[in-house]
């Protein structure tokens, strides 16, 4: 898989070609996109973030594709640009016609469509060389397009999930819960962290799901690493082990963390665990439409501060989950976002004490009209 569309590669199977005529914008998602583009003052949008390409087009190899959307006028419509490795797949999956080529042929093909338009590009997901390519082909080459830097145009549409999207996330979380139930009895002293991760991953693959990200299994002092990817460390007796993992179903992720006790951890470790559990449960209970993300973060942080642990809570409370493992809304102190029904978020406070260890507890939560539904069902230990 390559994210660099400018890398020379194999030629298209049968030359550059459009798989069908230009595709109209139709349906709810396209209408929302057109409104969002109008709000951002855009005539067209060059979509390069893989999840956004997938969200709009349905093409599942968004890493190797771009999408041009022209919102209105004679050229209105959308075209997927990908290369000859994906001719069949694009024909099967994409809601829009595909032009099979690599840059610069893709940009040359798009140039007449963007003539004189204000064309947005995704500033967080376009490389400098790709931007130079847009400039060379759409500005310096007579197309006279105005390139506009944008952030979060499509991400804003992805914040509230449809029922179909929630169903995928629910399925991913159910598989992760089943994996945890199957693997938990084997998390004992003498087992390596990476064996635990391998068992979780094998279980999820056996159920047709992928792993949402590199699994964290952080035992003993490694628990002080929030992103402590499973290592060859052997889990010891009387330790805490933090396990953070998720499944991926049809591109949609789940995310859950449990911290488990092996043997009889010290009273100091149990105290950390109880404080984190209190902070997590309070945050979950406060999740409802209208709740401010920054307030939720503060609520859990204040509880950890009251236990003298505020300085050890080294990240935000949580994040949205969907086609990306980390997406909006951000449940953090600086977030201006407010929860709405249909959002799927995590609540995952943690404390990390260098040389000692750490604790994190995380649930995956659907915001509902009446409050919330906790999608993760794996039991939490009471220490
Ligand atoms: C590599 S994906 C990690 C998934 C995990 N559940 C997670 O989101 N974590 C683990 C600890 C912190 C948190 C995280 O990475 N939060 C981000 C959004 C932050 O910047 O705080």
Itemize the secondary structure elements and their pairings.
Blueprint: E1 17-18, H1 27-39, E2 44-47, H2 50-57, E3 65-70, E4 77-82, H3 87-93, E5 98-100, H4 105-114, E6 118-122, H5 128-138, E7 146-150, H6 153-158, H7 163-183, H8 193-206, E8 210-211, E9 216-219, E10 239-245, E11 247-249, E12 252-253, E13 256-262, H9 267-285, H10 293-306, E14 318-320, E15 327-331, E16 344-347, E17 350-353, E18 357-360, E19 363-368, E20 371-374
Parallel strand pairs: 2-6, 4-5, 6-7
Antiparallel strand pairs: 1-5, 2-3, 3-4, 8-11, 9-10, 10-13, 11-12, 14-15, 16-19, 17-18, 19-20
Helix pairs in contact: 4-5, 7-8, 9-10
Bound molecules: ligand L6MH72SM.
Could you name the key traits of this structure?
three-stranded antiparallel sheet; 20 strands; disordered N terminus; elongated; alpha+beta; single chain; 383 residues; seven-stranded mixed sheet; binds the ligand CSCC[C@H](N)C(=O)N1CCC[C@H]1C(=O)N[C@@H](C)C(=O)O; 10 helices
Average of pLDDT: 94
Please list the strands of the largest sheet in the order they lie side by side: 1-5-4-3-2-6-7
Give the low-confidence spans.
Answer: 1-15
Strand content: 15-25%
Indicate the multimeric state: single chain
Over the alpha carbons, how many angstroms does the gyration radius reach?
Answer: 23 Å
Structural class: alpha+beta
State the shape. Answer: elongated
What is the helix tally?
10
Helix content: 25-40%
Q: What characterizes the major β-sheet? A: 7 strands, mixed
- Please report the total strand number as a whole number: 20
Give the SSE order as H and E letters.
EHEHEEHEHEHEHHHEEEEEEHHEEEEEEE
Hetero groups: the ligand CSCC[C@H](N)C(=O)N1CCC[C@H]1C(=O)N[C@@H](C)C(=O)O
Distance between the termini: 44 Å
């Amino acid at each position: 898989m390559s994210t660099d569309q400018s890398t020379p590669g194999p030629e298209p199977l049968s030359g550059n070609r459009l798989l069908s005529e230009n595709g109209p914008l139709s349906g709810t998602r396209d209408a929302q996109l057109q409104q969002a583009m109008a709000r951002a003052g855009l005539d067209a949008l060059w979509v390069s973030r893989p999840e956004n390409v997938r969200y709009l087009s349905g093409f599942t190899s968004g890493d190797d594709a771009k999408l041009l959307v022209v919102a209105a006028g004679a050229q209105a419509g959308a075209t997927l640009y990908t290369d000859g490795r994906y001719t069949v797949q694009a024909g099967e999956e994409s809601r829009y016609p595909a032009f099979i080529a690599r840059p610069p042929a893709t940009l040359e093909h798009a140039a007449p469509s963007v003539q004189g338009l204000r064309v947005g590009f995704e500033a967080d997901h376009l490389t400098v060389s790709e931007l130079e390519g847009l400039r060379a082909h759409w500005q310096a080459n007579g197309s006279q397009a105005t390139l506009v830097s944008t952030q979060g145009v499509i991400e804003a549409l992805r914040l509230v999930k449809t029922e179909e999207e929630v169903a995928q996330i629910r399925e991913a979380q159910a598989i992760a819960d089943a994996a945890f139930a199957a693997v938990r009895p084997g998390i004992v002293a003498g087992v390596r962290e990476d064996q635990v991760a391998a068992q979780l991953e094998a279980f999820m693959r056996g159920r047709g799901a992928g792993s949402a990200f590199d699994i964290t299994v952080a035992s003993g002092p490694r628990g002080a690493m929030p992103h402590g990817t499973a290592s060859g460390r052997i889990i010891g007796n009387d330790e805490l082990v933090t396990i953070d993992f998720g499944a991926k179903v049809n591109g949609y992720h789940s995310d859950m963390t449990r911290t488990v006790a092996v043997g009889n951890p010290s009273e100091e470790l149990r105290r950390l665990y109880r404080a984190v559990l209190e902070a997590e449960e309070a945050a979950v209970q406060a999740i409802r439409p209208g709740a401010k993300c920054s307030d939720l973060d503060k609520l859990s942080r204040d509880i950890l501060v009251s236990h003298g642990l505020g300085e050890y809570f080294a990240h935000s409370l949580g994040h949205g989950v969907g086609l990306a493992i980390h997406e909006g809304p951000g449940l953090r102190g600086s977030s201006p976002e407010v929860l709405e029904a249909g959002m799927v978020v995590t609540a995952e406070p943690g404390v990390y004490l260098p040389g000692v260890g750490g604790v994190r507890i995380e649930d995956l939560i659907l915001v509902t009209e009446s409050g919330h539904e906790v999608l993760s069902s794996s039991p939490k230990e009471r220490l």
